[in-house]
Design goal:
The protein is an alpha/beta fold. It has helices spanning 5-8, 15-22, 25-32, 39-50, 94-104, 119-124, 140-150, 171-175, 210-219, 232-240, 262-273, 288-296, 306-337; strands spanning 68-70, 73-75, 79-81, 108-112, 130-134, 158-161, 224-229, 245-248, 279-282, 301-304. Bound molecules: flavin mononucleotide and benzoyl-formic acid. It comes from Mesorhizobium australicum (strain HAMBI 3006 / LMG 24608 / WSM2073).
């Protein structure tokens, strides 16, 4: 990051214009875009903005503890990097640089099936856990192979994308003529040219069903996380199928427009889940207060997507570490200013 970093990047929102300056237009549109009219994309952030906080005073917040435990693993803070496709589009080292930055900031990094780097190379550069995200492909056996192989390669959890049976209508990347360069290798993604990026065709991609999730469950002892749940009944079925966690997500609003903001969907889901498994939330998390609101409404952790990719584009691994640390410090400030010294003190009463 340039020397003026502390004045230039005061919050995660400041990263987007910086990335826009350095990225090819079509790549920027691919990352920034949401589905349809981007109503849900705006709402993911606006819904956080509508929530007001309730501070408690005169509590000792000199020593803050942001630590959480997920699947028996201690994590120093609840900020996780979401899986984002094709990171070598924005930086020559792609996911490896992102994982290195995540490690510096002590954050879990999620490597997607759509990654342009191998998981061993990400594990090698980070002390923090690396998770693998399975994006289901048409070769059923290959999906199973990936899941079976991941523990030996160093993955600490397996997440599965469950919210993308057909490509979302992403006008911006289409208008900009976004294309994946053939030269960009994707070691786990064989289906990349089979239509996932085509819109308006009503084409269905290969897609897992609950039976497939049960099969994946039988293939690994790693924690299994279902990413892309918005309905309490699906959360219930996830638990019944053996999921160890869910991600309440609308895929950064890239799939179906006019879905609810994730923070609005969270309360009913956390009520139903009732603490049986951890809930992770993503979509529009930009401020420390957003992290606090998500935890107050039932999340154990949050994921961030676009902001860290903008940081990666702007300044590689250092940028990613800077981005996470910025959010982490902002979250600590939000905890102190609401009188919450530990994560388990952040409950519903923190919401006005
Ligand atoms: C450019 C881009 C690529 C993504 N690729 C994937 C993917 O391959 N698999 C997946 O499950 N989610 C993918 N996502 C969704 C993110 O994991 C995450 O749910 C979302 O970005 C969170 O919202 P936020 O960007 O508002 O923080 C992608 C998101 C973006 C912006
Ligand atoms: O862009 C995305 O959100 C995404 O999930 C994806 C999936 C496959 C290929 C590229 C991106």
């Amino acid at each position: 990051m340039p020397l003026d970093i502390e004045t230039r990047f005061l919050c995660l929102a400041d990263l987007e214009p910086a990335a826009r300056e350095v990225l090819p237009h079509a790549v920027y549109e691919f990352i920034a875009g949401g589905a349809g009219d981007e109503i849900t994309k705006r709402d993911n952030e606006a819904a956080f903005d509508r929530i007001r906080l309730r501070p408690r005073v005169l509590r000792d917040v000199t020593r803050l503890d942001t630590g959480i435990t997920l699947f028996g693993q201690s994590l120093p803070h609840p900020i996780i990097l979401a899986p984002i496709a094709y990171q070598r589009l924005v930086h020559p080292e792609g996911e490896v640089a992102a994982a290195r930055g995540a490690g510096v900031a002590e954050a879990v990094f999620t490597l997607g099936t759509t990654a342009t780097a191998a998981i061993e190379d990400c594990v090698a550069v980070s002390q923090s856990p690396v998770w693998f995200l399975l994006y289901w492909q048409s070769d059923r056996g290959f999906n199973g192979e990936l899941v079976s192989r991941m523990a030996a390669l160093g993955a600490k959890a397996i997440s599965v994308t469950v919210d993308l049976p057909t490509p979302g209508d992403r006008h911006r990347q289409f208008r900009a003529g976004f294309k994946i360069p053939d030269s960009l290798a994707t070691p786990y993604f064989k289906d990349r040219n089979t239509g996932v990026l085509k819109v308006g065709t009503a084409q269905r991609r290969a897609m897992p069903t609950w039976a497939d999730i049960a099969w994946l469950r039988s293939l690994t002892t790693l924690p299994l996380i279902l990413k892309g749940i918005l309905d309490p009944d699906d959360a219930e079925q996830a638990i019944r199928t053996g999921a160890d966690a869910i991600v309440v997500s609308n895929h950064g609003s890239r799939n179906l427009d006019t879905l609810p903001a994730t923070i609005d969907a969270l309360p009913a889901i956390s009520e139903r889940v009732a603490g049986r498994i951890p809930i992770i939330l993503d979509g529009g998390v930009r401020r420390g207060t957003d992290v606090l609101k998500a935890i107050a409404l039932g999340a154990s952790a949050v994921m961030i997507g676009r902001p860290y990719v903008y940081a990666l584009a702007t300044d590689g691994a250092d940028g990613v570490a800077y981005c996470v640390n910025l959010l982490r410090r902002d979250f600590e400030a939000a905890m102190a200013l609401t009188g919450r010294a530990r994560i388990d003190e952040i409950e519903r009463s923190a919401i006005w």
